[in-house]
Every structure is written in C-alpha cells, then in structure tokens.
Design goal:
This protein is α/β, with parallel strands linked by helices and 432 residues long. It has 12 helices and 21 strands. The mean pLDDT is 95.
Amino acid sequence: MDHFAYRSRSLYCENIPVAQLAERYGTPLYIYSKATILHHLHQIQDAFKEVEPLICYSVKTNGNVALCKLMAEHGSGFDVTSGGELHRALLAGGKGEKIVFAGVGKTDVEFRFALDNNVSLFNVESEQELHALGNVAKAMGKVASVALRVNPDLPPKTHAKTDTSVKGVKFGLDIETVFDVAKGILGNPGVKVVGLHMHLGSPILSAEPYRLGVAKALNLITKLREQGHPINVMNMGGGFGIHYRKQEAQPAKAFAEVIVPAVKQANCKLVLEPGRFIVGNAGLLLSRVIYTKESGGKHFVIQDAAMNDLIRPTLYDSFHRVWPAQPSAEFPNLPEDYEEDVPGGLKVDVVGPVCESGDFLAKGRSLPPMKRGDLVATFSAGAYGMSMSSNYNSRVRAAEVLVDGETSKLIRRRETYQDLVGPELEAMALPN
C-alpha cells in the first residue's frame, strides 16, 4: 500500500499535489510519504510480534537522517554496513543495543567505533574478520557479540547482482566450512558467537526461499550449540520484495508464517533487517520534461532526472513504473499494466541528460504524448534511489522532501555547484 493517488487528473502524495511540490522545491525531486513508511514498518512489527523481534531498518536502503529518526521514534533499530551508516543511525537517535553491524569489509577503525558505541551484534562474514574483530575487542577490554553469516547455497532467487546466497559470492561463510571457523574461535576472549545470520538477497517475492533457509538455519544452530557456542539469535536479514510492476509481492505475514515457527523451535531472538519493504513504495522521483525527440525510428522523452539520480534501471535492469503526474483526460490516471501498450500512447525511452547511452529510467514504454515542461513520476523509488545517487557529469544531487498529510518538509536541500567543488578547493588551499 502507498499514499500516492490521482485526484482530478493530478498526482498527490498524501494530501499535496506533487506539482505543488515541484514548484516549491524544483526537480528532480525525491518525495516520500510518512504515512506509507509507517504503515510498512508497522506491518512488519505486527506480522512478527509473536516473537518480539528486533527490527533493524537497513540504513543502506535510504539513509536520510530524517527518515532514520522516524524509524527510531517508532521502535526500529538499525542495520548498518559502514562507519558512515553507523554515524547516521546514532545521529537519528539509534542506540547501540538496537544496532547490528553488517558488511564484508569492516575496518579496525569501524570495529572500534562500533565497540565504543556498544553495538549489539556484528554479522561476521569471514574467518579473518572474526579474528581481526577479536583482536580489536580484546585490546579495548571488550567482548564483541557475533552472528556468523552463513551462505546457505540456495537456488537463484533474484537478479545476479543482488542474490547473496548462491555459491561463489563474496558474502558469508560457506556452509561447508562454518563449523571449522566457529571451532577455531572457541575460547577467544574478544569475541562470543551468539547468533546465526542468513541474508538471502533482495528483492525476494516468495516466502519459499525463507522456508529453505530456516530449515538449514535450525540444523546449523543445533550443531553450533553442540560445539559450545551459546546461540540465542537468529538473524534472517531482509530482502522482502515490493510491488514494482503490479501486485507481485507478498505481505509481511506470508514471511512471518515461515520464519516465526522456526524461531520458536530454535528458542532464539529474531533479528530482521528490512529496508526496501519499508521505504521502497513510500517514495517517488519527480522530474520535468526538458525535450522530446525522434531518432532512428525511436522516440525519446528527455527529462531532468538521470542515472546519477536513479541508477537501478541501468545497473540492475530494474523496472520502475513511470507515468505523467498530470495525464490528459483521454488517458487513464494510471494504466492497468505498465508493460502493455496504452491506447493512443507513444512508445518511448525515458532518458536523462547524462552522457551515457545507459542513462535511462525506462525503455520502450507506452506513455501518453509528453511535451516540454510536463512532470514525470517514477514510482517505487524510495529504496536505493537517493542512497545510490552520485555526482557523475558534475550533476548536483536532488532534493528530498517528506510529506505528512497536508504539510511537507525539506529533509535534504538540493546540492549547489559549491558543494561539488568545496572539498577540492579546501584541499588546494592546504599547505604542501
């Protein structure tokens, strides 16, 4: 569910027309719905409440401090993958006891930062990392609580670049070697293995991979306990899918029906690391048409959002619904199927100003004829949109705005040309 809807031929976010937001804040513009964010967070909290889970919002999905603050205010912890993400979580009011530190390449500096802030759990992904963390913690007079991330070697479930539990990826410990690694850390004064971590990739549209995953997790937990490790945490990561095309995703309760019984059987504390499920459909990217053109029999809509604003289509071949924010009366407010031809529509590539042929938001999409100045909405852009944006072609990053009913608040201003060059000019001014 989301709170974006058309009224009188105009797209609204909650109770504000997005055209009004474009006039006030400019384009390209990321627009988020507070009601949608909280609805999805509460949906997960309610689905899993039977086992009182620790829900850790995945900061990498969208790390805006205002959105993270909203998460903390409504009971969420945080899943962080870098020192920078940990900094964001702490700024937003996150507490160490509700923060999990993930990632395959944590540095000693990041270990110390996390330990200083009493992070509750480190998801450890290699034998060397396990011992490096132990050395740092011992030197600080601390004991780091660890969940071993295991690669369960499940069949492919999603795009190859986001599938993290097949053989040959950089993530986790091989299921065949995890016991040797765990045995080698027994008695280490700097680390205590208290959990098992299993993140299956993202986005996953079916509960079946989790059914396969928890079955393997239960077996691993039993054997790790037999080895002498006090396992009391089962971390099943995130990855729950969302509606990108139609209504293809499952509700949170479908995943809970698979995961909760296993957690109870294991007698463990459940940790989840959702991100996309919470913010993905809570945000859209609003842009404005600059030009239209025809070349080689193809039609192009050139608008002011580019691959530096939303890289998912060119990076992952990801599909995002695209539609005018103010469609003319002869067209539907929204089509029933964004992949089918729209009567009276024109098949176009929706592209941006960046100097790459890969700079597109949609290809071969049937849309109402568009003209210079029209507003374009790219939906399901709340996750991995702004967080993966860049300054390629020296383009300034977009502004972000949070809508709450009839009010809007700027939560990140649009960058300026000075922002682009400031660190370089500061460096040039330093003495040799």
